Amino acid sequence: MPCGEKSTGGPRTRVVLLRHTPDPDRVCAAAAASCYSASPASAIDPRLTPEKMSRTIHNAVGRGHHSVLEHAVFTFSLEGVSRAMTHQLVRHRVASYSQQSQRYVRFDTPGYVTPPEVASRPAAKEAFDRAVSDAWAAYSKLVGLGVPEEDARYLLPNAATTNITVTMNARELLHVFGLRLCLRAQWEIREVAQLMLDEAVKVAPAIFEGSGRPCSGGPCPEGAEDCPLYPGPWGPKEG
Amino acid sequence: MPCGEKSTGGPRTRVVLLRHTPDPDRVCAAAAASCYSASPASAIDPRLTPEKMSRTIHNAVGRGHHSVLEHAVFTFSLEGVSRAMTHQLVRHRVASYSQQSQRYVRFDTPGYVTPPEVASRPAAKEAFDRAVSDAWAAYSKLVGLGVPEEDARYLLPNAATTNITVTMNARELLHVFGLRLCLRAQWEIREVAQLMLDEAVKVAPAIFEGSGRPCSGGPCPEGAEDCPLYPGPWGPKEG
Amino acid sequence: MPCGEKSTGGPRTRVVLLRHTPDPDRVCAAAAASCYSASPASAIDPRLTPEKMSRTIHNAVGRGHHSVLEHAVFTFSLEGVSRAMTHQLVRHRVASYSQQSQRYVRFDTPGYVTPPEVASRPAAKEAFDRAVSDAWAAYSKLVGLGVPEEDARYLLPNAATTNITVTMNARELLHVFGLRLCLRAQWEIREVAQLMLDEAVKVAPAIFEGSGRPCSGGPCPEGAEDCPLYPGPWGPKEG
Amino acid sequence: MPCGEKSTGGPRTRVVLLRHTPDPDRVCAAAAASCYSASPASAIDPRLTPEKMSRTIHNAVGRGHHSVLEHAVFTFSLEGVSRAMTHQLVRHRVASYSQQSQRYVRFDTPGYVTPPEVASRPAAKEAFDRAVSDAWAAYSKLVGLGVPEEDARYLLPNAATTNITVTMNARELLHVFGLRLCLRAQWEIREVAQLMLDEAVKVAPAIFEGSGRPCSGGPCPEGAEDCPLYPGPWGPKEG
After folding, report:
1. Which of A141, A164, C192, D75 gives the lowest tally of CB atoms within 10 Å of its CB?
2. pTM of this structure
3. Which residues of B touch A32 (CB under 8 A)?
4. B174 and B140 within one domain
5. Signed CA dihedral, A224, A226, A231, A236: sign only
């Protein structure tokens, strides 16, 4: 299966494109063209030339006719990500999620994500690792004392890893990429968004080429004065 | 492309399954299993036996864990349906639509759906056909007088045919089938829902087998006293 | 109840603001401020000065932090609008609708909307009125022949009036106003959107002041080349 | 402001009903009635007798015509709840959330929720309190070392308290109450759901009376065999 990985100091984050609508660019273009045609999408679909297909997608994206991009749907398996990240991710409501449960799964050994800002400072890294280790020891102790896993997990840190299956259509993905690839977005969700985009663009180039940060290095569309032009662990996207 | 048709007196209604998530039963089962597992969906996906897959889907549907069914997504092209029907259909909000525009497409010849209750009564049928023909003549006259199509179409009847591309996930489809296959549902949307179900069950049997009317011939879950047990043009589903 | 009206040649279109979240500007500002505060919204709410409230809303809107505007919700009763208009309106999915049913209500006398492009041309107006009248006569004839209302209504034109109750939050309203007040939007939904905005801005000035067409007379954000700068029946918004 | 509280061992959980649609029962009843009437909702609204209003709501809920309940909207401030709880809560997608940010707010002193299953076991309680205290000490140490708050918070436990403003309509609330008041639901979200219901029923009795657990002590609608009939901290709802 196609996937991308990043090692973030702790276990590896993996993003796997588990499924997607076959020929996603084409179905969106056919749906878009059918709005202005006597013919239905099923008749237009096999007839579209590659040029016409690209132009139709390009026009739809450029003109704000984004609803046609909803016919292309992508399912990702996000693995080894932190619950700090997923708590942000699941705020995107036009999407479907199935997440590993901390109520029903027992976590016997520590699995956690270490932020680059921590990993790059030896004293911080040491304190971080020890604190995580202590949290897991306390979790195990509580379970040993008869506390249900779903209550013992109140001690697990935001850094704890989780797996989550995510289904989003291309319109929502473009929206998420615009927000989460911004240099001011939280680093882990930015990393995950980039891995998702890397996979999506391979199978739907007409839709996703050129997508990403809304600024493209120009003035911030949000008028931000606090943009991290030199954002430490990541560096400018171009650099 | 797989499709189903019904002739309703006017032009043919066609329902084409244009795209769907590959192997839809399996991806939903993998996502469901990953919630209770140390393994992510990408690892579970290739390992699921057919029996385990069916049982997982069956449990998810039976226990109300419906969110896992959202990872399977289906795109239909509905063709030659009436705008009376689509005005109802688009009220289902957890779905994506691209519809043929009456603002931008000129309709030179009448295309319309005739209700079975009209088609079965010769006097009604004659009045119906004449009225539709008159409406189209007036539409064409207005266009000839320089009225924009988008305004002339105020005269077109609810019966006028349209094409619409619809994307829904399996959870929403089950919800729609439950509502719209009910014998008290409006006949045309019931017909379209049945054609959609006929296609969906072929590619996702574990999800859709047994779906349909919620009553299954038993007492009405809505407590209705006006259920058409002998609903004329359709007959009981079992009959 | 606060309301606005427009006469469009046929019966009067009325837009009534039926309900709204009390003190809508304030609750959104309190929710926004609580994201960056040790205090919860219930503590911030009574303490916000008018200046701080306006500034918080202004920043949220300007910076793209639009989710906080979802806490202000508005319920409108749209009356005497055409089904051509409502078929477009209900495509906005982040909203709640309750619409007068053509299945269960019998329409004994013609009620319809006449487009300005028709009303302004005497020959077109005459043809339009006659066609509508004929459609209603045929509808009544079918009902008299025993055809159910829900089937006879296949003859009713797009112009037929309907009533619909609509609930939307402020974020979605801003989105709808941006799309539907555009001079290229269909005239009737533009008219209704303007009447809705006129009511909303009275009770939530901080949120809605300055909202409306995204172009404000500048270059089209959609890159349109067909903008009706002199759109006939309406005239430029500024004029 | 109307509110309810529960002490869960740590800081107090508070649920404040911050805003709601005025006269929520009535607006839903008027919208429901308008679907079957020649009159619009604005005309029906002031005319409804209390009996007619109750009966209309009762019929809508009983018959599955739930969409009319979407016109009544409620905004709650949930305070002192754990992030374990909010990660579940925000999975309900037909709702609006504004949550206290762990990226932008510094948490100098421990604020956390203690599960009853922990609080009732002295040894577990001691280990829990110490683990939380250690986590906060490590968080503060990282911040002192120059690690940004948004990264130091990777150490904060699921038990950490947060504030969140939640807006939901009555239809979604009924859905959430059905799921989350189930005795098998996680204890904290069950507690919060009960406090929300306690407030909602005061202002919308016709909608919310009788809502709650779907089982009402009868057989489980999910066919569960693991229902905690004696669920410790809560006891059966009836008991």
Report:
1. A141
2. 0.91
3. 98
4. no
5. positive
Tell me which residue of B162, B124, B89, B112 sits closest to B8, measured CA to CA.
Answer: B112
Query: Is the same domain home to B68 and B91?
Result: yes
Residues of chain B numbered 95-154 and touching chain C (CB < 8 Å): 97, 102-103, 112-115, 117-118, 121, 123-124, 127-128, 130-132, 134-135, 138-139, 141-142, 145-148, 150-154
Q: How far is CA B184 from CA A93, B62, B91, B219, C103, in A?
A: 33, 25, 17, 13, 11
Q: Is residue A110 part of a domain?
A: no
In a domain, A19, yes or no: yes
Percent of chain C with pLDDT over 90: 75
- A65 and A177 share one domain: yes
Nearest chain A residue (CA) to C179:
A64
Hey, what are B225's tokens?
Answer: 């006293």
User: What is the domain range of residue D166?
Assistant: 3-99+161-208
Instruction: Tell me, yes or no, if B182 comes closer than 8 A to chain C by beta carbon.
Output: no
Same domain, A92 and A150: no
Across the interface, whether the CB atoms of B158 and C159 are under 8 A apart is answered no
- Give D22's contacts in chain C (Cβ within 8 Å): 19, 22
> Are the Cβ atoms of D63 and B224 closer than 8 angstroms?
yes
Q: Is B184 a catalytic residue?
A: no
pLDDT in tens, D25-37: 999 999 999 999 9
Q: Between A and B, how many CB-CB pairs are < 8 A?
A: 139
Flag whether C45 is in a domain: no
Task: State the pairing for strand pair A96-99/A73-82.
Answer: unpaired
Taking the C-alpha atoms of residue D202 and residue D200, their distance in angstroms, rounded to an integer, is: 5
Residue D104 falls within a domain, yes or no?
no
Average pLDDT per consecutive 10 residues, chain B (239 residues; last block may be shorter): 59 91 98 96 96 94 89 98 96 97 90 97 98 97 96 98 98 95 92 97 94 68 58 34
B108 contact partners, CB below 8 Å, separation of at least 6: B140
Same domain, residue pair B91 and B191: yes
Closest CB to A222: pick one of C63, C222, C224.
Answer: C63
Q: What is the mean pLDDT of residues A94-120?
A: 94
Q: Do A64 and C224 touch (CB under 8 A)?
A: no
Do residues B174 and B82 both lie within one domain? yes
Number of folded domains that form chain A: 2
Structure token digits, residue D99: 């949550």
Q: Are residues A166 and A90 in the same domain?
A: yes
CATH number at residue A190: 3.30.1360.170
B14 interaction partners in chain A (CB closer than 8 Å):
40, 42
Tokens 């879950």 appear where?
A: B221
Kindly report, residue by residue over A211-230, the tens digit of the pLDDT: 877 665 566 766 666 665 43
